[in-house]
Amino acid sequence: MRFSWRIFAGYFLLLGLLAAYVVSVVRDEIKPAMRRSAEAVLLDTANLLAEMVQPDMVAGRLDDGRLAATLQRFAARQPQAEVWGVRQDHTQLRVYLTDARGVVLLDSAGQAVGQDYSRWRDVALTLRGQYGARSTLADAANPLSTVMYVAAPVRDGQRIIGVLTVSRPNLAMQPHIERSEAKLGRLIGVVLLAALLLGALFSWWLSRGITRLTRFADSVSAGGSAPVPHFAANRELDTLAQALGRMRSELDGKAYVEHYVHDLTHELKSPLAGLRASAELLQDDLPPAERARFLQHIDSESVRLQQIVDHLLQLASLEATGRLKQPQPLPLTELLAGELQALAPQLGARRVTPVATLPQAMVAGDAFLLRQALRNILQNAIDFTADEGCISLQLLPVAKGWQLQIANDGPPVPDYALGRLFDRFYSLPRPHGPKSSGLGLALTRTIVQLHGGDITLTNQPPGVCVTLRLPASDAANPLARVLA
């Protein structure tokens, strides 16, 4: 299982347990809280009614008093009300009054008049001067049929002469309890869903960062030049990425030096050997013509050594750069036209004809470096084209960039050399000039890669074709702009 999925699974489990615990606690508190609130209301109601009935009970006119008639009318009322979404068509409050012995004198339900209630807790405790209340099942088979009874004393001075009890079935509160529980369940569901979405987003964000680091590490192990990823919102991942970048720089630096020392040593052997041999021969007494020939050889080999050193320094500088600092929008068409103009003398001397199809194209990069890359490609095309031959230049729009194809009608590249032409110091004999340093195409590839592009070289009858791809200077697809 992926690391991000493990985090999400643990987060989901913890969140689920926490939500279940919260729901359980809140549900366990809803019923007692509502019943405590209802008990407080019943207590106030009982004391209010006890004060109302006290004058009639003391005067002995209870049957003709106002309370008895009021209770009858109260029992017959039909409120026809809707309380917080719950319909209430009849009253559910019951009131009964006992004397000092616990015998029921009045009952709003008309059920218990004359019965002895002295053993019920609400009556018994109140007659003893204590707070009297009880909760009793109306139906032994139904655990939800409990009825709450709250009593208040009726006093004549300090003497308790009766008990007034108010009762209400707890089942009357059940719709409100269920409604509250349903609302709570929906709220918990919304919160849980939102938390899960946030957890999934966090897992995706963390996984995305780890995936970017993994790809970067894979690129480093494969010798690629991917940029070091940056994590603005995650200092730990950003620090790790920077550490991996420094590690790559250190490893690349060691391999770079070893590789360059090996290549440079191999490449300098031949001109140094020629210089040494010519110098030894010049110590002898030679005819003027021979001496001039050896001096010319020393001069040409010195120039070759200087070119190798200059190219190596430039290539090393570009490869160490890693990326362009400030790329600018550049007209690729004008850059190509300028290089063709600069090479016009060589084209004329060899009677080589350029055939160009160059629509207007804009790329992002460094003008000096792109000119150098284009000059190297065009120079190679000219050098390997037969006299009175032809060079074709075609610029085509592709997805998110431009594709430049430069083809000549010279001899094809041998199969054994196709995979090595962009290696440092590797070159093929030129039909119309001395062998090159073998650094031109390597330098060109480095420049193209710095610009975010790629370059390939293939045999394409009747000659060789170099394909160069560069990204456009804006996010728009140049293909749509050219075809519009």
Automatic annotation (TrEMBL):
Residues 204-256 form the HAMP domain. The keyword Signal does not apply. Gene3D superfamilies: 1.10.287.130, 6.10.340.10, Histidine kinase-like ATPase, C-terminal domain, PAS domain. SMART domains: HATPase_c, HisKA. Its EC number is 2.7.13.3. It is found in: Cell membrane. GO terms for molecular function: protein histidine kinase activity. Pfam families: HATPase_c, HisKA. This is histidine kinase. It comes from Vogesella aquatica. The gene is creC.
